[in-house]
Amino acid sequence: MEQHEDAVVDDAVVDDAVLDDLTAFLSRLTGLLLRSSGEGAHLVERAVADSARAFGGGASLLLVPEAATLTVTAPGGRTRTVTVHGFPEVFRLDQVAALKPLLDEVHAGRIGITEADRRLTAIETAPAPYPWWLKFLGIVLFALGFAPLMQPTWYEIAATAVLGTLSAALAVTADRVPVLARILPLVVSVAVSVVTIEVFADDPARGGPVLLMLPALFYFVPGDYLSAAAVELAAGLITTGSIRLVYAVFLLVQLYLGVLLGVLVTGTSTHALFDIAADADLPRWALFLAWVVFTAGTLFAFAIPVRFFWPLLLLVYVTVGVQSAFTKLVGETGGTFVAAVVLSAAATLIARPPDRPPRLILILPGFFTLTVGSLGMRGLTTLAGGYVIEGFQDLLKLVTIVTALAVGLMVGGALAQGDTVTRTAVHPRAPRTPSASNEQGGTRHADEAAP
Fold first, then answer.
1. Angstrom distance (rounded) from CA 167 to CA 220
2. Burial profile 156-172: b = 16 or more Cβ within 10 angstroms, e = fewer
3. What is the largest CA-CA distance in the chain?
4. Residue 208: how many CB atoms within 10 A of its CB?
5. Is the separation of the CB atoms in 300 and 135 below 8 Å?
6. 88, 66 contact by CB (below 8 A)
7. Which one of 47, 352, 366, 422 is most buried, counting C-beta atoms within 10 A?
8. At what angle do helices 372-384 and 238-266 cross, to 10 degrees?
């Protein structure tokens, strides 16, 4: 009898240890995935559930964009519920790149949970791959490469070089000054607005102030959040998509408010906020090379490994080419939709081998070329300038384009991968019922329960 009780106690201790290890790993994984959930939160659930199954356990998630209630089931049947927080961002994509091969090994059963947790900890705690000055250069190049899309003029590029340098300086400073980081979009937009109006917007023939400002602000425009929100809403994740959409709109309004404050500081009439483009004077070779500059800037600004440069550049050119060709045939909305389908399908196929870049990284530069977020900024600032018809046209175009882009990304992924993505999003494989929880450090643990 005593031997039996001792055996039961030993089994319980082993189960507890296994549950501790599995919970620690999945909690850390969930937090990292939440912070990099640029494609939508439904992919977080799939990755966590697959990882839990690889170690003989189970996991279910109740998700919102910045947090998740995670219920972990150990191989012995004991369960634990934790709450994990992770604010969504896309500024450390080197971690996304490092996570993909680790998850491939976990799902293939080639690595134990102790080693998996050690490597995941190393990914989380790794320093940024580039020094601050390369991030600074990346943001400047990112703005310069995008500038010809606003106005294909030498003056636009010259103005963006100055304004992009200002934006990059503030962004790099915010990495070291937490107070500035909290209000960075507002501060950047005020500074860019003031300098644009005082220095560069002295001649209407050189283009409207809004078009001169946008390339320098593009790094802060939440086009990725808008698209991810639309994908989540289309996939049936109403709460997650709605929260992300509200946050994206809030960021846009912050940028818009900063531009207005800049107008007030300079004593300029809001009627100066027009976005009529100047006559183009850039040669074709400059327009072609701009995307090389843009892709290089994306690598350094978002901490993407340099070895991914060529596939990213290829996808940028493919996206731009498809969008341009189909826009001439079926209009801007149709061109954006087809370009998003092609981009998503190509990124999904390229990302399949373990040694290839993750799908999120492959999609990101091409996605930026479709300029979803800039339409919102143009619409809001044009409305503030008193140009009601033009402003509402831009905002209506924003709604149409962001929907076409989001649906296109879903369709492209489904075509390249079957209907797995859609079914996972709409019909999650695991229950979503969180348990009651108690505070313990930064994570809340529910009472453990045997089946």
1. 9
2. bbebbeebbbbbbebbb
3. 94
4. 24
5. yes
6. yes
7. 366
8. 50
Residue 60, SS3?
strand
Inter-CA distances, 296 with 100, 140, 351, Å: 22, 10, 20
Nearest alpha carbon to residue 95 among 28, 20, 48: 28
In order of 83, 181, 234, 253, 408, the CA distances from 65 in angstroms are 13, 20, 15, 20, 22
CA distances for 54 relative to 48, 110, 125, 386, 391, angstroms? 10, 10, 24, 58, 52
Mind listing the pLDDT tens digit of every residue in the chain (451 residues)? Answer: 544 444 444 445 556 788 888 999 999 999 998 888 766 666 788 899 999 999 999 999 888 888 889 999 888 788 899 999 887 776 788 998 999 999 999 998 899 999 999 999 999 999 989 999 999 999 999 999 989 888 889 999 999 999 999 999 999 999 899 899 889 999 999 999 999 989 998 888 888 788 888 889 888 887 777 777 777 777 777 888 888 888 888 888 888 888 888 888 888 776 666 667 778 889 989 989 999 999 999 999 999 999 999 999 999 999 999 988 998 888 878 888 999 999 999 999 999 888 888 988 898 888 888 865 455 455 555 555 555 445 556 666 667 777 788 788 888 888 887 544 433 333 333 333 333 333 333 343 333 333 3
In the numeric block, which tokens belong to residue 86?
A: 């992770």
C-alpha 114, offset from chain centre:
30
DSSP-assigned beta bridge partners for residue 68: 63, 84
d(CA 41, CA 52): 17
Q: Which of the 8 DSSP states describes residue 419? A: B
SS3 assignment, position 274:
coil
144, 215 in Cβ contact below 8 A? yes
Per-residue tokens: 225: 């959040």
Q: Which of 108, 103, 113, 114 is nearest to 36 (CA)?
A: 103
Residue 444: how many other CB atoms lie within 10 Å: 17
Collapsing DSSP to helix, strand or coil, 429 comes out as coil
Q: Are 244 and 88 in contact, with CB atoms under 8 Å apart?
A: yes
Environment class of residue 63 by beta-carbon count within 10 Å: exposed (0-12), middle (13-18) or buried (19+)? buried
Contact 290, 284 (CB under 8 A): no
CA 103 – CA 120 distance, rounded (Å): 10
Tokens of 299: 């690598």
With a CB cutoff of 8 Å and minimum separation 6, the contacts of 233 are 241, 242, 245
For helices 209-217 and 238-266, the axis angle rounded to 10 degrees is: 130
Place of tokens 């580039």: 130
